[in-house]
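Running this now, will post back.
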Amino acid sequence: MDILSIDYNNEFSSLINYISTIKNYNLLQATTFDEANDLYSKNNISMVIIDIDNDTGINFLRYIETNHPKQRVVTISGKFKGSDKLGSEHCQKYFNKKRLMKPLVIHDLVLYIQNFDTQKCIFCDAFKDSTSFINNLDNIIKGYANINFDETNNILTLTNPLLLVETINKLSVIDNLEFEILNDKKIKLINKKDLL
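Update: finished.
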């Protein structure tokens, strides 16, 4: 299986390279649009993995959507931006895309690579209503071993107060999310849609 990875700053390339080595996949890596386009046109690519937190990734994703809409694509981002506009149903009907969030969880990426056609997108229906929006935060939070999420009260509890700043930085990039710091170990999550 040939996998094309477009990662402009090599943020997750070593992880994908590790997966391709242990699973015996052929990994092709690009950091620019021209490199990605050249590799894509010269190889029989089974899957494209794109970091969409930059213009290179966005432009190549648009190229794939326009010219090869049924290409298997995994988009990786630190933001939900874009997912709430057309929604998962649109992606499933017109494209062959799935989304992963940063920090990248190796288990989720391996599931997509091995079972792309049968694996449901982790963020499918994440924006249908307020409840599913908050519940899907658990998929991001599970990347942190020192954080517990109380779904009933929408409260993150950190086992280590030193994670507070890092956690706030990660939460601040999520569209439609407000949060309140309750103390040095607890953060309450508030969906902006609930405030309207």
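The CA atoms of residues 95 and 155 lie 35 Å apart. More later if anyone needs it.
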